[in-house]
């Protein structure tokens, strides 16, 4: 692994943000993968009809439990919640126009499609009651659906609320049906609302319709996406199956209702829990097998192959075997082996396996005790990727290679999906009965904003490509470096030689960069993590500026324990390098350059700058993620620039338990950052722009109502007279739209610096898309910016260009990155804390980019 | 555990008769499940390839039968189309069916239509079940029923169940068990009808039932009476079947088969008639299961099994890491004793299998590469079951798994990323 690859693997590929692969393929490595496989989340009916729809909390798809597509409204509901937060109307300067002007116009094709329907299209919402009342949602649906009165109408029904596209003759319709038991049930269908197509409820129903349609195309719904199991991509060496599919949604964009579809892959594992256990047992030996096994398995979600449900493993019962008996609901006793044979014709082959224990959530809201289910490991498939799997560079590379699609491939898949929808009579019929028509693919005009110059110490450089300017600045001196005089290298006997030759190389390249590196003290240690930490404890004193550790293996304990000690217990910047990285033939120079740059930053140096037209501007990046060990802890990383040139940073990371606590700790951070700014600049910044990443669906409201006021109050409190003006921008790397440029009859990724601020944006928001990353082989994903608060009143054009400039300032990569540098720093910091340190780093390090 | 699935389905199923409100008699397991289990046992015993369930209702029985490895074609027919479509989804293959495919192909088809129509697509079946069906037929349909099912479809075996009206007095105030029942027969009535039909169409019939009467009322017989009809002289000959092939009640044209509603709308008769016209029998749902008979899935399974076996052999060849000396405090340590006995894992081989494995070529290392001869892999029962010879294995896995230059062994790196990650 090259230095860059290692850093990428460590910093990005193991990203904790969970999403499907294939949707974020812009960087050379996939930036994230679906870890969570969170189908176990509850599914409920739409519009708060929870009482009757708590059927099958574990259902992945319809399966045995027959959950309908309508139950999957929860996550969508969160999106709709976000859409109801209209922030633009409060921002006077963009109320009429939020588009920029500079740059060269570029024609773009999108993955959005028109959805046409008659002007007077309406949806009719009815409420259905049953006399006598029926508890079973399934029976309610069956009775209504089988009634001749409704059989030819387009309908969506969740057991209580019925949507029709045609109005019934009467406002109240009385129907009666007979159950097979002979009981007569009266159904009263009462018109509640007539909804115009722009209503959020309609959009939910449109989404339901499209989910139905994709099911008709024989696709499987997993979570919110649809996958085609008949064309899997296999990665046998990693026991993975990738199902190709689509993420789809229908929503209102700037002026009209659009259908959007993006290619997505679902990662499934061809591995049963028993196979996993067997392999684990082989590796660990028996002595500590049970504990390791529990550590590895508890908390995972498994899929049972006989009934298509998912369960979480809550415990492992080593004392129960498949040959033991259990009591069925009807009171009879049966062995597990016989049960599976009788019920599912499955022969359990391993009679010695223990049982997985899963705590079943209660059906309905009764108060009886939660039940435990015993599951047979042999019949349970693992789902999702473990943290360990996502940290495996080879595995992630294999997944990326299989899932990466160039724009043309993506466009082909989209065309095929649209074609299928239009050709499949069933799907078309569904659309037609609802009065909908599938329209054309949307094209729009974006702009490519001017490229940026890179300012070095004595040179202004116009890079050939903003993607990577390492060659352009090779001979230039960096802006500012502190001399490294007292430092340590820790290495083992085996790596001493390679450490020496690396050191020579490092000093040479650092010198040419303008970074003076003196000869360090080299300490030889034994090859185990404890020895490394002991050596650090023993040799690090207050004079030591930096500790470099040449790690004998990429075993996580080395890295974690060293980082933990040197970030909080004894705050000294540290640099870990894998011995294997240094053994790479012919790579030494580039690795040394990269490491020299990181070391400069860790000592508080500055590498390069871009021109910032605003005189007194502080930019802030905030990211939030979950701690890897304790999932209920949120790691909040905040990074603020402390000089007008935006080359020096103040970084803090705090651990919190709830979203409101997050807002509170932002206040603590802002106060600290403004104090720092004051200390260095003897004044407060005139403007502050906060880039907030790590915002989940449905959190926009909390941001607007809680975080923004907290930020404002911390700004107001720090100054007695005029306070700084504040803007808050939500940054999302994951968004539905994709943009392609058409060139020579094929589609390609749009150029760097492409801005889209019309049609694919939302009318109620001050938002835009910016493409600030390169995708060599895949399709680039645009970054989405939503300005939710803006006192600064910058022109949209300036806001867009400033954002683009900030994407050039991430010192870990001599090129442009996908998000503004403060966000990327905050991300890197939260990642280090969430994965390795698990506590707040010492404030003494706050002035250095110690986490690079 | 999972037995509640079927209980849930009983709600829609409407099999309520066995749980009357003032419960005098309760069956355990519920009567409808006893009936389904009865059919399932019959299937286990006779291993039919093609099975049809007439009057399949919400397809509960089909869902129970689809797990049976011997069945390759499973058909359901019912007059209530909405219910069929609504439940159809649950017959589609599960995700796990793609990950661990069946051995044999399985196709499931649901037709919407009357059971008393001749339909050549139901010819040549091994088993046709009519569970609680005949009592729903009016006299005209009942008269046509034997001629269609026994005479025309003429499967090797037919199972017919119907309520035994002699049992009814044991229920509180029940005349007919379901308002849609046109009649309920005594044992004598059913047996007379059955024997007449069997005799006429050259079947032999046995009578049995499910739902034991309570103590003291043994003379009323089973709550549900069942007749098992077996065709004399075995299966209908293939020639006989092909002769009759043209009698599709509804020609299933490609593309139109999945569109019953549209057809109904444009069918003038359908719009005019208050009841569904009987001559329509539409295919409303069809699904086929992945299986090892399909090349793609066979390859998937074989490649997976090979990878797994190679990985397992590789790990056992790794040089043993030194035991940590415990100075790393947070390492998991078995506290010993207190836990349940340490489980033993992995496949258990018979002596013959063991000998076969021992006698096959051994895995070996060259440098940092690890080789497993294909002959060795073939010695393992799980792989041997899939693949008979080396040539076949090589051709299937060649483009998925790296092989040695002469193609006789699988080759892999001896050490990989995960080995370092394990710290115990």
Automatic annotation (TrEMBL), chain A:
<protein>
    <submittedName>
        <fullName>Piwi like RNA-mediated silencing 4</fullName>
    </submittedName>
</protein>
<dbReference type="GO" id="GO:0007283">
    <property type="term" value="P:spermatogenesis"/>
</dbReference>
<feature type="domain" description="PAZ">
    <location>
        <begin position="272"/>
        <end position="384"/>
    </location>
</feature>
<keyword id="KW-0963">Cytoplasm</keyword>
<dbReference type="InterPro" id="IPR003100">
    <property type="entry name" value="PAZ_dom"/>
</dbReference>
<comment type="similarity">
    <text>Belongs to the argonaute family. Piwi subfamily.</text>
</comment>
<dbReference type="GO" id="GO:0005654">
    <property type="term" value="C:nucleoplasm"/>
</dbReference>
<dbReference type="GO" id="GO:0031047">
    <property type="term" value="P:regulatory ncRNA-mediated gene silencing"/>
</dbReference>
<keyword id="KW-0744">Spermatogenesis</keyword>
<feature type="compositionally biased region" description="Polar residues">
    <location>
        <begin position="14"/>
        <end position="48"/>
    </location>
</feature>
<feature type="region of interest" description="Disordered">
    <location>
        <begin position="1"/>
        <end position="48"/>
    </location>
</feature>
<dbReference type="Pfam" id="PF02171">
    <property type="entry name" value="Piwi"/>
</dbReference>
<keyword id="KW-0469">Meiosis</keyword>
<dbReference type="GO" id="GO:0006417">
    <property type="term" value="P:regulation of translation"/>
</dbReference>
<keyword id="KW-0217">Developmental protein</keyword>
<feature type="compositionally biased region" description="Basic residues">
    <location>
        <begin position="1"/>
        <end position="11"/>
    </location>
</feature>
<dbReference type="GO" id="GO:0005739">
    <property type="term" value="C:mitochondrion"/>
</dbReference>
<dbReference type="InterPro" id="IPR036085">
    <property type="entry name" value="PAZ_dom_sf"/>
</dbReference>
<dbReference type="GO" id="GO:0010669">
    <property type="term" value="P:epithelial structure maintenance"/>
</dbReference>
<dbReference type="GO" id="GO:0030154">
    <property type="term" value="P:cell differentiation"/>
</dbReference>
<keyword id="KW-0943">RNA-mediated gene silencing</keyword>
<dbReference type="InterPro" id="IPR036397">
    <property type="entry name" value="RNaseH_sf"/>
</dbReference>
Automatic annotation (TrEMBL), chain B:
<dbReference type="GO" id="GO:0090486">
    <property type="term" value="F:small RNA 2'-O-methyltransferase activity"/>
</dbReference>
<feature type="region of interest" description="Disordered">
    <location>
        <begin position="315"/>
        <end position="338"/>
    </location>
</feature>
<keyword id="KW-0694">RNA-binding</keyword>
<dbReference type="InterPro" id="IPR029063">
    <property type="entry name" value="SAM-dependent_MTases_sf"/>
</dbReference>
<keyword id="KW-0943">RNA-mediated gene silencing</keyword>
<dbReference type="GO" id="GO:0003723">
    <property type="term" value="F:RNA binding"/>
</dbReference>
<dbReference type="GO" id="GO:0034587">
    <property type="term" value="P:piRNA processing"/>
</dbReference>
<comment type="similarity">
    <text>Belongs to the methyltransferase superfamily. HEN1 family.</text>
</comment>
<keyword id="KW-0808">Transferase</keyword>
<protein>
    <recommendedName>
        <fullName>Small RNA 2'-O-methyltransferase</fullName>
        <ecNumber>2.1.1.386</ecNumber>
    </recommendedName>
</protein>
<feature type="compositionally biased region" description="Basic and acidic residues">
    <location>
        <begin position="321"/>
        <end position="336"/>
    </location>
</feature>
<dbReference type="GO" id="GO:0005634">
    <property type="term" value="C:nucleus"/>
</dbReference>
<keyword id="KW-0949">S-adenosyl-L-methionine</keyword>
<dbReference type="GO" id="GO:0005737">
    <property type="term" value="C:cytoplasm"/>
</dbReference>
<dbReference type="InterPro" id="IPR026610">
    <property type="entry name" value="Hen1"/>
</dbReference>
<keyword id="KW-0489">Methyltransferase</keyword>
<dbReference type="GO" id="GO:0046872">
    <property type="term" value="F:metal ion binding"/>
</dbReference>
<keyword id="KW-0460">Magnesium</keyword>
<dbReference type="GO" id="GO:0030422">
    <property type="term" value="P:siRNA processing"/>
</dbReference>
<keyword id="KW-0479">Metal-binding</keyword>
<dbReference type="Pfam" id="PF13489">
    <property type="entry name" value="Methyltransf_23"/>
</dbReference>
<dbReference type="GO" id="GO:0001510">
    <property type="term" value="P:RNA methylation"/>
</dbReference>
